[in-house]
Design a protein that fits this description.
The complex is a heterotrimer of chains A (287), B (274) and C (326). With 287 residues, chain A is mainly alpha-helical. Chain A has one domain (49-282): Orthogonal Bundle (MetI-like fold), CATH 1.10.3720.10. Chain A is built from 13 helices and two strands, in the order αββαααααααααααα. In chain A, strand 1 and strand 2 (44-46) form a beta hairpin. In chain A, helix 1 packs across helix 13, helix 3 packs parallel to helix 7 and helix 3 crosses helix 12 (242-251). The two termini of chain A are 42 Å apart. With 274 residues, chain B is mainly alpha-helical. Chain B has a single domain (55-268), classed as MetI-like (MetI-like fold, Orthogonal Bundle). In chain B, helix 3 (51-97) packs across helix 9 (190-206) and helix 6 (136-159) runs antiparallel to helix 9 (190-206). Chain C has 326 residues and is of the alpha+beta class. Chain C has two domains: 4-232, Rossmann fold; 257-325, Nucleic acid-binding proteins (OB fold (Dihydrolipoamide Acetyltransferase, E2P)), CATH 2.40.50. Chain C contains ten helices and 18 strands. The chains are: A mainly alpha (287), B mainly alpha (274), C alpha+beta (326). Chains in contact: A-B, A-C. Chains A and B meet through helix 1, helix 4, helix 5, helix 7 and helix 10 of A and helix 1, helix 3, helix 4, helix 5 and helix 6 of B.
Chain lengths: 287, 274, 326
């Protein structure tokens, strides 16, 4: 039997594979090795797990790890719930809902640095618009970005401001795929609006939910731009996350430590997202 | 439309107006103010309109650095997107059309690309080995490597909607593989190509982290880096800072106005099974 | 057993009038079929009865009560959708018991009633399966089960058989008719298929363009169609209908004769024509004759009748079977 040449040759994959392997896969594999060294790009000195021990010893490094998880869970959780609610609202036939969708979605496309700078200014403790407006109704606004206890959460708010539109738009697409028959059958069965939401909408919008949760978790864990633009991880280390720690260690020349941070981030994402994806797939439903 | 839908709509629009539109209005009016006026950070109409003057001053800063930045960002974006479309379509094509054991590997790589955070310092090390560190070409290749996952996904699912009959008719006509791809398939990929171009252009144009790591230095600044760096430059000149933000916001705005549908389609791809 | 009465029901969507004034009574326990071509309004009428659509004017009475403004769940109806609307994330048992669990009935009660319903429809062995693991006929029975468990006064069926293949369809027709006999409930059934209408209905309502053309038993509609539209709709192959000169000669606006009511002879008859096309179905043969004054005449005759294309044949209408519409 002669093997005919396929019309879909493997070499089509070659250019992409080369770029991807050299500039992504290889460094990722190499990072495991380099994280076990003290490194300055030219000389390497094997030091075993010392970098990792440092990560779990130094308070500011631990803080970064903890903040990363808090940040990711808060942004992802809010986007998942609020995104769906907004999507339901924006598909209910409101006056001007097309305009509303546009307004909510536009921030997704704007430069993160630009958003970060703008909100830093708006959040200025005395002259910023937010506290000025609050003062007008007699509330003394806190130092959103200057109070170590608040800084991270203020950035979470800005992240939500910028990103909720994407979650909403994904949910809107998911809602559109639910056949009206399901709602009509529920209506005949006497379902209330709440029952329809929890027992028809939520189960049937699952594919969109999976996408939103996964994308926002990964994005949240890797978040860097916004934090760097607004606080650079400060005040002190109160708003540091893994990504900013990685950069700071890089800037300081501790390449091995920085790479260890990369590996930890990698493992963190894997540990959180993979079981989650497996759990979702197990409950998968063929619509 | 019921009364409740009308009132809820107006209320929602008002709330969203305050939350989502106000910041942009603030950017615009501050960008039009004089230095002293802007320093107050008030939400007020400019005492004196200096939109054009601020624009000129920002552009001229540090020897027209903004123009250089725009040039660099454009070059990177155009080059990267072109390669992404080409490579991504080719991989998506083979992935969808040719069932083989390699497909699981490719899928794995796609998912890895979407999930795994790039290992920064090792990547710098590789770039240095290749002599591509701090170069535009290096940046372009990085953007291609990082953007391939999502791009392949989009192309693959779109190609699934093109019937195989077309390939087979071309084979019967004696077409060679790259002819089938370039002359039959690629033209039919216009809708998804537009989506990929639009979505990836915005992402690459707005990218801050990667140029920060891989393009340090003055010669190869990008737009986002310039905006970040000018924070120090414009410490006391909020009007110029916000003019800079305004200028950075405009290109995606233009793309959004013309390609709204494609952007939304690209970003919801995969959200609904199909 | 419940009656359904519609009085002067009109329905408009914006400026488009879909239902143009419908008056109808469905007797208690009747199997009533709404039939008509696409867009005639039969589904709209069903949805108005169900409460999923409101009337623009007119009233709907179920069991003597005015339900025109009542919610679907308050009307004592149950509906079987064309797509079945089975929740893919629920098992068969959960789908059937869905309405009861919405009403927060105790678990034991739900389980008992689901079991009873499943027994009636022979679904007992499928209770733990999800819809995607069921065949088309099984899914349909689950949809019917979800309707039965509500103990409705009126069952509404919206083209339930159109998603099934032909052989399954004829089997399900029998099952539905037997179900009707067993439950004795009032059933309103919408279809575009006149075979379903003829075989299943106690009473057929023929709709066209938002208005009722005729109401009657299947045989009444077959033997005494009130209009050329009904005449052409009921019966297969379609009745031969002619206007113009031939109708004028017969003193009417439209003249009709069914293919099965024409006698074929090779020697003599009222009309003479040349055989243009023959369809042999086994038990019957359908012959298409080119008759000068009639153009094409369709004739149904015995399966083994010797007839060839191009031959000259004579056709005569059976007495008493001609239709003259004014």
């Amino acid at each position: 039997m002669t093997t005919r040449k396929s019309a879909y040759p493997y070499w089509f994959v070659l250019p992409a594979a080369v770029v991807f392997t050299v500039l992504f896969l290889a460094p990722t594999v190499a990072s495991f090795w380099f994280s076990l060294t003290r490194w300055d790009l030219f000389t390497t000195q094997f030091i075993g797990l010392e970098n990792y021990r440092q990560f779990f010893r130094e308070p500011f490094l631990i803080q970064g790890l903890v903040n990363t998880v808090i940040y990711a869970v808060l942004t992802s959780g809010t986007k998942t719930v609020l995104g769906l609610l907004l999507a339901v609202l924006l598909t209910s036939g409101l006056w001007g809902q097309g305009l509303l969708r546009t307004v909510i979605f536009f921030p997704v496309l704007v430069s993160t640095i630009g958003v970060g700078i703008t909100f830093s200014v708006l959040m200025h403790p005395t002259r910023g618009l937010i506290n000025v407006a609050l003062a007008a109704v007699g509330i003394h606004g806190p130092g959103w970005l200057t109070d170590p206890a608040l800084a991270l959460y203020s950035i979470v708010f800005v992240d939500l401001w910028k990103g909720i539109g994407l979650a909403t738009v994904i949910y809107i697409a998911g809602l559109a795929s639910i056949s009206p028959d399901y709602y009509e059958a529920a209506r005949i069965d006497g379902a209330t609006r709440t029952q329809m939401f929890f027992r028809v909408t939520v189960p049937l919008v699952r594919p969109a939910t999976v996408t939103v949760v996964t994308l926002s978790l990964i994005g949240g864990l890797r978040s860097f731009d916004l934090i760097w633009a607004m606080t650079r991880g400060g005040p002190g280390f109160s708003s540091d996350v893994l990504a900013s720690v990685i950069y700071k260690q890089y800037q300081a020349g501790f390449y091995g430590l920085s790479t260890a941070g990369n590996v930890i981030l990698f493992l963190l994402i894997g540990l959180i997202v993979l079981p989650l994806t497996a759990w979702f797939n197990r409950k998968e439903v063929d619509l | 439309m019921s009364r409740r839908q009308l009132y809820t709509g107006i209320a929602a629009l008002a709330a969203c107006g305050v939350i989502f539109v106000l910041p942009f209005i603030f950017i615009f009016i501050t960008a039009a103010k004089t230095k002293q006026d802007a320093a107050t950070l008030r939400f007020s109409w400019p005492v004196e309109w200096q939109l054009w003057q601020n624009f000129v001053e920002v552009v001229q800063t540090r020897n027209y650095m903004l123009l250089l930045a725009y040039f660099n960002s454009t070059v990177i974006t155009v080059a990267a997107v072109t390669l992404l479309v080409l490579f991504g379509a080719m991989v998506g094509y083979v992935l969808q059309r040719r069932p083989s054991r390699w497909n699981t590997v490719i899928y794995g790589c796609v998912l890895a690309g979407l999930m795994i955070p790039p290992a920064i310092v090792p990547t710098i090390w590789v770039l240095q080995l290749l002599g591509l560190f701090k170069t535009l070409s290096g940046m372009v290749l990085i953007q291609v490597a990082y953007g391939l996952g999502f791009t392949v996904l989009l192309f693959r699912s779109f190609i699934a909607t093109i019937p195989r009959d077309l390939d087979e008719a071309a084979i019967i006509d004696g077409a060679k593989p790259f002819q089938i791809f370039f002359r039959v398939i690629l033209p039919l990929l216009k809708p998804v190509t537009v989506t990929v171009i639009v979505v990836q252009s915005i992402a690459i144009f707005n990218d801050f982290t990667n140029p920060l790591y891989y393009l340090p230095g003055r010669e190869n600044v990008t737009v986002q880096l310039t905006l970040y760096n000018f924070q120090g430059q414009f410490q006391t000149q909020f009007n110029l800072l916000f003019m800079n933000i305004l200028l950075v916001t405009i290109p995606p705005l233009i793309v959004f106005i013309f390609f709204n549908r494609q952007i939304v389609a690209g970003m919801t791809a995969g959200a609904v099974k199909g | 057993m419940t009656s359904v009465v519609l009085e002067s029901v009109r329905k408009s969507f914006g400026s488009l009038e879909i239902m143009k004034g419908v008056d109808l009574t469905v007797e208690p326990g009747e199997f009533c079929v709404f039939v008509g071509p696409s867009g005639c309004g039969k589904s709209t009428l069903l949805r108005i009865i169900s409460g999923l659509e409101t009337t623009t004017s007119g009233q709907v009475f179920i069991d003597g009560k005015d339900v025109t403004d009542a919610e679907p769940s308050e009307r004592g109806i149950a509906m079987v959708f064309q797509s079945y609307a089975l929740y893919p994330h629920l098992t068969v048992a959960e789908n059937i018991g869905f309405g009861l669990s919405l009403a927060k009935r105790p678990k034991a009660e739900i389980a008992e009633r689901v079991k009873q319903t499943a027994d009636v429809l022979q679904l007992s062995h499928l209770l733990d399966r999800k819809p995607k693991a069921l065949s088309g006929g099984q899914r349909q029975r689950v949809a019917i089960g979800r309707a039965i468990i509500r103990n409705p006064k009126v069952f509404l069926f919206d083209e339930p058989l159109s998603n099934l293949d032909a052989s399954l369809r004829s089997q399900m027709r029998i099952e539905l008719t037997e179900l009707h006999a067993k439950l004795g409930a009032t059933m309103i059934y919408v279809t575009h298929d006149q075979v379903e209408a003829m075989t299943m209905a106690d009473k057929i309502v023929v709709l066209n363009g938002g208005q009722i053309e005729q109401v009657g038993t299947p045989m009444t509609l077959y033997n005494n169609p009130a209009s050329p539209f009904v005449a052409g709709f009921i019966g297969s192959p379609k009745m031969n209908l002619f206007d113009g000169e031939i109708a004028a000669r017969e003193n009417c606006r439209t003249y009709g004769i069914r293919p099965e009511h024409i006698a074929l002879s090779s020697t003599e008859g009222k009309w003479q024509g040349k055989v243009r096309h023959i369809e042999r179905l086994g038990a019957d043969t359908v012959v298409y004759l080119d008759v000068p004054e009639l153009q094409t005449l369709v004739v149904r005759t015995d399966g083994d009748r010797p007839v060839k294309i191009g031959e000259t044949q004579f056709a005569s209408p059976l007495t008493g079977k001609e239709h003259r519409f004014s």
